[in-house]
Write a structure and sequence with these properties.
The protein is α+β, with helices and mostly antiparallel strands. Helix 7 packs across helix 8, helix 15 packs across helix 16 and helix 16 runs antiparallel to helix 17. The two termini are 38 Å apart. About 5% of the residues have low confidence. InterPro entries: PatA-like_N, T2SS_E_N_sf. This is PatA-like N-terminal domain-containing protein. It comes from Chondromyces crocatus.
């Protein structure tokens, strides 16, 4: 079933609601109880929990002061500006599918943030800023209990100072806020109150500063993407150039021709967006060139493949042709005679990605230890290339099958926070990734 139908609910002539998609069924089951149907436009159904007494009580949940659909990046800037200027207290909840993020306001100032997204969790933030290694994260997780937060355990184990933890908790809140402001799809709700225990640490983030930074990221991202397609790309110094300005020296010294931009950000302890900005300045000054990531080992090969197919399917889903591409890929897999075994235990998810560990193990079984890495790259290259072959003609068609000149108005937002106003052609974004898998 397509992503568009997973959350579909049908109301019949008797007024009975029937979940059509699995996601809709799951969400409705989780909301058992008595709800009040609120007046709304004919194309909207709005209900809120009231309990068996039929009245809205404080224990039934906070009042929804604002709600609406998100249709483009930056759409929430006006909402957050309103909350800030009005000096409201409450929680702004932003939901895209099953993924949710929240900003907490006190007198119009953002005092905290919360996210259900794996990459937003404090452990991942500490890793991206170079404060913890993967081994330290694993050790911290093993020692964490419901009574102690992750950061507190990391401090107790001596992995970082408390002052550094507090600083990066602020960075975590800022990064979540930026992702909220750059959200291009989903819905939002502003709730009049929130539970103080949901805030890991109180911050003091001015709405005006967050809005200015969001605009800067959207604006600068247009130029960054032309030269730096992703944070996995690798910068390399150009020989014979003079040293850069002092504010770029630390990033310059971290460039060794092997580290990706994400790895350089960890080395210098910066955010990935800031590291990207500085490397872009070095490129503009003619001091640095950037090349596509080179796969080093089977996990890197699968990571490149996953990024490529995720991008392809996201584009065709947006154009209304996702089901056709997935059907073609399924037929290709069955006909080739190799992918049923290669993807066993790691069947492609809805976004096209596969679980690396089973795929790598299956490649060893199919090709043997010595040839498995080379053959894995070749098999994934052929699969991703076929996906591109099927997708590109469909992207020139509208959902009704008519030819359109299509430029997306919903630019992608990746973990670096970089967003483009006009999306580059699919071939330019995916080609360099697939090219790294091509047989040499």
């Amino acid at each position: 079933m397509s992503a568009e139908r997973q959350d579909l609910v049908r109301i019949d002539a008797t007024g009975t609601a029937h979940p059509v998609g699995k996601a809709a069924s799951r969400w409705l089951r989780a909301r058992g109880g008595a709800f009040r149907l609120l007046p709304s436009p004919e194309h909207v159904v709005f209900m809120r929990f009231v309990g068996e007494d039929g009245r809205r009580d404080e224990e039934d949940g906070p009042v929804v002061r604002l709600a609406g659909e998100i249709t483009k990046p930056g759409a929430l800037c006006d909402i957050i500006s309103l909350v800030g200027h009005a000096g409201w207290d409450g929680e702004l909840v932003v939901v895209d599918g099953s993924v949710g993020r929240s900003l907490f306001f006190d007198a119009g100032t953002v005092i905290g943030a919360r996210s259900a997204v794996e990459s937003d969790r404090i452990g991942e933030v500490l890793y991206r800023y170079g404060a913890l290694s993967r081994e330290q994260i694993d050790a911290t997780l093993a020692a964490t209990s419901p009574e102690q937060r992750f950061g507190e355990v990391a401090v107790r184990l001596g992995f970082l100072e408390r002052a550094r933890l507090y600083q990066l908790l602020g960075r975590q809140a800022e990064e979540i806020a930026h992702q909220v402001l750059l959200a291009g799809d989903g819905v939002f709700y502003f709730l009049e109150r929130f539970d103080e225990e949901q805030i890991a640490s109180r911050q003091n983030l001015a709405v005006s500063s967050l809005l200015m930074e969001a605009v800067r990221r959207m604006d600068e991202g247009r130029y960054f993407r032309e030269r730096i397609p992703s944070i996995q790309h690798v910068p390399e110094r150009i020989a014979g150039r003079a040293l850069p300005a002092k504010d770029l020296r630390q990033t310059w010294e971290a460039i060794d021709g092997h580290r990706s931009i994400a790895e350089i950000a960890r080395v210098v302890g910066q955010g990935e967006f800031e590291a990207t900005r500085q490397i872009f300045q070095l490129i503009q000054a003619g001091m640095v060139a950037v090349h596509a990531p080179r796969p080093t080992g089977p996990k890197a090969i699968v990571a490149l493949f996953n990024e490529a197919v995720r991008t392809i399917l996201a584009d065709v889903d947006e154009g209304g042709h996702g089901d056709e591409v997935r059907w073609q890929l399924s037929a290709f897999s069955s006909g080739a005679g190799i992918y049923d075994v290669l993807f066993r235990g790691a069947a492609p998810a809805e976004d096209g990605t596969v679980n690396p560990e089973p795929v790598i193990e299956n490649a060893v079984v199919l090709a043997g230890p010595e040839q498995s890495e080379m053959m894995l790259a070749q098999w994934l290259y052929e699969y991703a290339s076929f996906a591109m072959f099927v997708a590109e003609p469909l992207l020139r068609l509208g959902p009704d099958g008519t030819t359109v000149a299509r430029i997306s108005q919903l630019p992608p937002v990746d973990p670096s926070g970089i967003s483009t106003i006009e999306r580059e052609p699919l071939s330019r974004r995916v080609g360099p990734l697939i090219g790294q898998l091509a047989p040499k």
